[in-house]
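Worked Example 4.2. Consider the chain below.
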Amino acid sequence: MSNNLSSFDALVLGVYKDGSFSETASKKITEKIRQTIKQQLQCAGVKGKLGEVRVLYGIGSEEGLPSQIAVVGLGTKPENERDSLEKARVAAAVGVRTLRNQGAKNIAIDVMTNEHGASEGATLALFKPDRLKSAQNQIPSVKISPFGTLSSSDLTWETGLIYANAQNFARTLGNSPANHMTPTIFTENAKSVLKDLPNIEVIVRDRDWVEGKKMGSFLSVANGSDEPLKFLEIHYRGGKDGDKPLALVGK
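Applying the procedure from the previous section yields the following structure tokens:
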């Protein structure tokens, strides 16, 4: 079995509504195992709807497959790239959450309809909002890796990880209690993440600058706290010459 699946304790596989498997599964899982999986799904009444999941145990261990296989429905074949992204996101997310809840720690994920979508969906689904809890009460960490590869898109497993980790970082900033995410902590977090990236400039403004700009509403909110105010600017200069500037204002 390629991709050394024996090193994983669980696997996510995608299956379409018509009973066919994803491109990766069709190439890398033997016909014998695919038929066994189909029989199990039929007995369980699985229809292959997008996000429908069943976990199968002990199938294909003699061929190096992990002991737990989450088979997730992909619905119908994708109609376009946007559709393929969404199907992979949903299926990967459902699969890894299901397996994590059953104790899996090292999961291989079928890239299914889209590598980027699979890694993005899985990483978003495994987000841990419990960093302030004691260690024994935190959700266990899970390692994920791609099973297979697709060459039909510029979007890859790695770009999906970048997108998802950026979203998870924003979730941490936005969801943290105020006393654990003061303006100073917020700006220091942003600087730490962005400091080594090309074409990025990070500027942290203080009260004097805000007063000079007569930003009254901003000042009135900040006056309700003992914490010093901070106004964060992030400049990205990686566009083409002549491109119109785009400003995104957070609140």
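The helical segments are 23-28, 31-43, 81-101, 115-125, 157-175, 183-194, 207-212, 216-222. Residues 81-101 form the longest helix (21 residues). Compare this with Example 4.1 before moving on.
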